[in-house]
Design brief:
Layout: H1 2-67, H2 75-101, H3 105-116, H4 124-139, H5 141-173, H6 180-216, H7 221-232, H8 236-264, H9 266-269, H10 274-301, H11 305-322, H12 326-336, E1 347-350, E2 353-359, E3 363-367, E4 375-379, E5 405-407, E6 413-419, E7 423-428, E8 433-437, H13 438-443, E9 447-448, E10 453-461, H14 472-487, E11 494-504, E12 509-517, H15 525-542
Antiparallel strand pairs: 1-2, 2-3, 3-4, 5-6, 5-9, 6-7, 7-8, 10-12, 11-12
Helix pairs in contact: 1-2, 1-6, 5-6, 8-10, 14-15
């Protein structure tokens, strides 16, 4: 125990130290990486500065030539060279500022100038889709920039190869120059190509530095999540979130106000009359319109015309599409006013089961009190094709209740242990469970034994008892059945027992034995069906009455036929 405590104590002391050392090493590594980046950037700036100085020297030299008598007839050529060098000097100056500041001011200025341009009606669609395209381009800017820089590196390599080959050719020609003028011209050409080589190398170095910087950028999960959050809450993302929240707030407040009105105003206490329903429908329409106006108002207040235009187009498109659904919406409105084919307090049949319509609204509530989970909610559009009828005083909602014993037309006999709108589960004698879909259960025309049932048995005696078959024998068998049932413990379950002469059969005189039970013996239905025959046989045995068997008649062919 003490050893574990010592280990935990050592861990508590060492862990913070290791954590501090880890963060210190990480900070030093980041600092070293930052110093390397700055050093490389300084080297690139020096290269740019040398290139700019070289171009400036070239421009001064050309200016001197332009002012000298040697420029006679070459003024346009010299001015064109100066213009090209001036443009190149501006590009190097812009590159110098971009490398030194990490800010592309030219792109920012171009963006500002572009935003100030007046767009024509033909470009409205581009303006609406522009924010989406810009967001997509921003999301893919890093890989696209990396690919562009790699393409530039390949181009610079190809250019350097061409320049190197050109210089090799020039240097090979130079020793063979036969005149001073050719030597001077070749030297000038060599210097020109050397300048080109230097410029390409400078641009290649800058591009390589950018490429390394982009490839080396690795964002942590938290930084990426933070950048995503800033993107969402910046500009249109923030405006859109605020607008959605305002829409939800207005909708919830107006719905809450409606419920409050229903509770406190006497207007609703008299029941949901037609006037109340008209008000509910109008209030629902007002809630939807006012919530949408609040959404558009947020876009207007923030001055976000793009989102405002998109929202207006969406609303107009929804209204245009709703034009085709006006008959359906009208049918739903009539239902909500309780003047349609389905009305509150009446009975509808849904999936073959009767339900009482408790309340008609956007979501209508139907109830069957005989089923577990017998309350279902339907969208009002599902009621359009239904029809209701008045509810009667002794409405039969379901053939059984939980706990009742039933007998189905397929011979299944058992106790209902669960019944829902989807399934009915029966527990048969012996414990076996049988599950029916509710629709299939109803199709089996269940006989509910818990409300009382009748046992009807046909029993036959021999024709030798013809004299007493109509009165004496029925009375004796009736008393015997009553006594036997009482002895078996079914006395409280008997409603009545009748034994009557039924018919003179082919082989016997048949009696109809009828026993009406009050439902307390529903669990013994099959047993009592068999017991009735047994009681009748015992009564015959006690009175020496003969039970006939089926007579077989043999017809003989006449002789000589």
């Amino acid at each position: 125990m003490s050893t574990n405590s010592s280990v935990r104590g050592i861990v508590r002391v060492i862990f913070p130290i290791l954590l501090v050392v880890f963060f210190a090493i990480t900070a030093q590594a980041f600092a070293a990486q930052e110093r390397d980046v700055i050093t490389a950037k300084a080297e690139s700036l020096e290269e740019l500065l040398r290139s700019m100085s070289h171009i400036s020297m070239q421009m001064d030299a050309i200016q001197k030539v332009l002012r000298s008598p040697d420029a006679a007839g070459r003024e346009e050529e010299l001015k064109l060279k100066i213009a090209v060098l001036t443009e190149r000097e501006k590009e190097l100056e812009a590159s110098f500022e971009k490398v030194a500041t990490d800010v592309d001011w030219a792109d920012a200025w171009a963006k500002e100038s572009k935003d100030k341009e007046e767009l024509s009606w033909d470009s409205e669609l581009k303006m609406l889709l522009g924010p989406v395209m810009r967001e997509i381009k921003a999301m893919t800017s890093r890989p696209r920039e990396i690919e562009r820089l790699r393409a530039q590196m390949e181009m610079y390599d190809s250019q350097l190869n061409e320049v190197g080959r050109a210089l090799e050719n020039l240097l090979a020609i130079l020793p063979n120059a036969g005149t001073p003028q050719l030597t001077q011209k070749l030297n000038g050409t060599i210097r020109t190509w050397q300048n080109r080589q230097q410029q390409i190398k400078t641009q290649q170095g800058i591009t390589e530095q950018k490429l390394k910087q982009l490839i080396g950028e690795k964002k942590s999960f938290f930084k990426a999540a933070g950048d995503l959050t800033r993107i969402i809450f910046k500009g249109r993302g923030k405006t859109l979130i605020i607008a959605v929240l305002v829409f939800a707030f207005v909708w919830i407040c107006l719905r809450f106000l409606h419920r409050l009105l229903r509770r406190i105003t006497p207007f609703y206490k008299e029941g949901r009359s037609v006037y109340v329903r008209v008000f509910d429908v109008m209030y629902l329409a007002f809630t939807a319109v006012f919530s949408v106006m609040a959404l558009l108002g947020v876009f207007y207040l923030f001055g976000d015309w793009v989102l405002l235009s998109l929202a207006i187009i969406f609303v107009l498109g929804f209204c245009w599409a709703a034009k085709q659904a006006i008959p359906r919406y009208w049918g739903q409105a009539v239902l909500m006013l309780n003047i349609g084919p389905v009305r509150e307090g009446e009975v509808v049949i849904h999936n073959g089961i009767p339900y009482e319509v408790k309340r008609i609204n956007v979501y209508t509530e139907l109830e069957n009190s005989h089923l577990e989970g017998g309350i279902i909610r339907l969208h009002i559009k599902d009621l359009v094709d239904m029809r209701s009828r008045p509810k009667w005083e002794n409405e039969q909602w379901f053939p059984s209740r939980k706990g009742d014993w039933v007998r189905l037309s397929d011979g299944t006999y058992g106790q209902v242990i669960a019944q829902t709108p989807e399934a009915v589960k029966l527990k048969r004698v012996g414990g076996a469970l049988v599950t029916y879909r509710t629709e299939d259960f109803l199709a089996q025309t269940p006989m509910n034994l818990s409300q009382g049932f009748r046992l009807n048995v046909t029993f036959g005696l021999d024709y030798g008892h013809q004299a007493i078959i109509t009165k004496e024998i029925p009375d004796v068998i009736s008393k015997a059945l009553t006594g036997a049932l009482n002895a078996e413990g079914f006395g409280e379950s008997i409603s009545s027992i009748k034994v009557e002469f039924k018919e003179a059969g082919a082989s016997s005189l048949d009696l109809a034995v009828i026993a009406d039970m009050n439902g307390k013996a529903e669990a013994k239905y099959d047993f009592l069906t068999r017991a009735m025959q047994r009681y009748c046989v015992e009564a015959c045995n006690a009175n020496n009455w003969v039970i006939p068997f089926t007579q077989v008649t043999v017809h003989m062919e006449p002789q000589g036929a």
